[in-house]
Amino acid sequence: MTQSGYFTGFTCVKCGTFASPDRDLLLCPKCDGLLDAQYDYALLARKLDRAQLSRRANDVWRWQELLPVLDPSRIVTLGEGGSPLLQCNQIGETLGLKNLWVKSDATASPTGSLKDRSITICATKALEFGYKVLSCDSTGNKASSTAAYAARAGLKSVVFCPYETPLPKVAQAIFFGARLIRVKGHYSEINAMYRKLIHSGRVKWYDCGTDNPFRYEGKKTYAYEIAQAFNWSVPDWILQPAAGGMSIVKTWKGFQEMKKMGWIDRLPKMVAVQATECAPIVAAWEKGLNNVPGIGKGPTIASAIAVSNPGPLGDWTLQSIVASGGAAVGVSDDEILTATKTLAREGLFVEPSGAVTISALPHLLKSGRLDPRERVVCILTGSGFKDFERILEMVTIPEQGIQGYEEMLAAAESIA
Amino acid sequence: MTQSGYFTGFTCVKCGTFASPDRDLLLCPKCDGLLDAQYDYALLARKLDRAQLSRRANDVWRWQELLPVLDPSRIVTLGEGGSPLLQCNQIGETLGLKNLWVKSDATASPTGSLKDRSITICATKALEFGYKVLSCDSTGNKASSTAAYAARAGLKSVVFCPYETPLPKVAQAIFFGARLIRVKGHYSEINAMYRKLIHSGRVKWYDCGTDNPFRYEGKKTYAYEIAQAFNWSVPDWILQPAAGGMSIVKTWKGFQEMKKMGWIDRLPKMVAVQATECAPIVAAWEKGLNNVPGIGKGPTIASAIAVSNPGPLGDWTLQSIVASGGAAVGVSDDEILTATKTLAREGLFVEPSGAVTISALPHLLKSGRLDPRERVVCILTGSGFKDFERILEMVTIPEQGIQGYEEMLAAAESIA
Description:
Order of helices and strands of chain A: EEEHHEHEHEHEHEHEHHEHEHHEHHEHEH
Number of strands of chain A: 14
Shape of chain A: globular
Structural class of chain A: alpha/beta
Oligomer: homodimer
Largest sheet of chain A: 6 strands, mixed
Distance between the termini of chain A: 60 Å
Largest interface: A-B, 90 and 90 residues
Strand content of chain A: 15-25%
């Protein structure tokens, strides 16, 4: 099988420059703007049978004609994507919502987070382009994902993480064989330095970081999976945690693509959720700005999405939200912890950063934007195991142990 | 939709007694033997279209007509099952195998382990039967799964675990809202006491433990998923970790069912893998016995499968292995740790207990039982996060952190 003819190249979001599909690019070669992959949608609409795609394995590559890959024989996969879409009636009732769903990457991703959806593309492109090393900067989840897919592809990996990154994320990356460089400072500073390093040409690594335009496309699969699971009927709202907001930009793009191809007949409203302590996209949206200025960063428990200066990606996210008629919502650390516990009481084990979308629901209801009868999908992004210290702070393990049948019976009858 | 007419009841494996499908049973009401669910396979063969089933959501309930449920409107699901089947060429090459696959429940289960496949059935039956509390004894994974599905069903849960159970497993169970009772002693002793408690009638809990015959059936889905993923062509070998061996018994049953229905035309050879330190099934198989005597239990890092006396379930497992022309293989703790690392180097994050099947491959090759060209599927059962202390023992986190661009460049160039 070949994708030739579907993926047609990139255009720069800023200056409109076109680049051919075979080029190994990060940013726009002319202006350093972000690149957006282009496809021949007329051809796709003619050739693709959405029902037939649904019979393929339940992963990101089910939608491979819509991904920027030229050589499908080199796909590097761990079975990422295809996460469950679950109706949550208990949480819905508590909040007064009649039609609440979660899409849980948190509990169904190979390395335990949404990053697998996009890093699978990077590893595949790295083989296409002939690289030997994958690299990224990361608040942790992207690092373990990069390490896993490098291993799967038979490549090496180098990852740069803030010194305070939760232990499970860095330990997992190292266990996959990554070389970990711990960096002091805020993530946004580390991100700026790392991008300077990559663009300096001093290293020959394949960058799986913020600038990789192939990687972005993996996030579109959220849209395709949601539409398919609802039998090509589109929900009213989709809420996503936002660091820079790549997931939102690309989920929105996925829905627009499906509309172009005639697979769906309407579009959802997109919501970006950030921790109030570090919420530049929310601040810009609330002020009605057209771009997202960087802000000072306070400490937040939602470390995976604490990006104080998302740069041009933030602007693109803001535009997607506005175009969809959606919103940006800030939630407090207390609200995030409550959401984490709320999800657990419906059987879902999610790290605080990955649970923020649930915290945003009361805000949307209170503001009157969200009608309680509307169909809402909250994306859950990272496993509770990924930030396990935070989970441990919320549980009490009994010290005492029992011994023998009489003590077991007594313990049982004291509960029953 | 109703399953009426497909699930026809239970027969006792020991005395053959029949019990109707609506009965709330654990063991045989006549002789306390294990019960095996029965179906009308002629009817199933006529009514079921295997291609149509493949278009349903990718979880255990895709195969609901083959599960012992009378009221599908009450299904309690977290999207369990449907785990990826991945070809592992790197590991295969190292071992000299040309056609090696893993089926990774370890990295795709809602609570991080295979237990979700069977506990989803328990929670569903608990609602059918009107219980308010789910309970189990467990080396840890079953406990967190029971807690999660109880939460999802709006029920309470009580779990009994050995005092030394890995922290992530018990913390997760508590976070889901379980009441945890820590019990001193070996798991097989705890299991005997717990079963006495359940059968005493002193508690009104729905038992999700060893004796629950509904739960067992969830494991059949391994067989259906593997056959479907291979386009209804059956692999030569299937290797599974074995505590009592329920997964092996029921995977074997699943393949037999598909043969009866005309979906497949041959059967695989089944292999049970245990840690040599606690390997009663292996010992019995090597001696050519017809049943599995209990043995003394040594310490092993594979805590999730350390069952020294599997009882009648062990006998059933042994019979399934023998009937399939398979084998039982013991592997050392060193071999298990090596397998855990080997899997990580292919991007798979698996707890030691869940990685044992990989350790068994060299033994099967060496003995000449396994032909290097045969198609082999190893089941991976629990996430690396589930026994995270063991993973941490195998990684070195660098103490040092760098600061500023010059240090980042120096660190990068020292690696590149």
